[in-house]
Give the backbone structure.
Amino acid sequence: MASTDSLADNTAFANKNAASFPILADPGKKMTRDYGVLMAGSFAKRWTFYIDASGIIISIDKSVSARSAGADLVANLIRLQIPKRVE
């Protein structure tokens, strides 16, 4: 996940929501500009980029809904045949 919010705001969000994934803080908006998701204001579009192990973008979901994002993410990982990561 990436956000144009500050590191402090992202950390507070992650703590409040018990996030189990990293959140990239992009307050300078370089990454959001580079990926073409920065909107006219200062917010990023809610797109999901699926990037393979070699760094290649293999799919982009441009219709992300906050209500179904988790389920949609899992469905797309299965559709793209992304193997589960075992740690």
Q: What stands out?
A: Residues 1-45 form one domain.
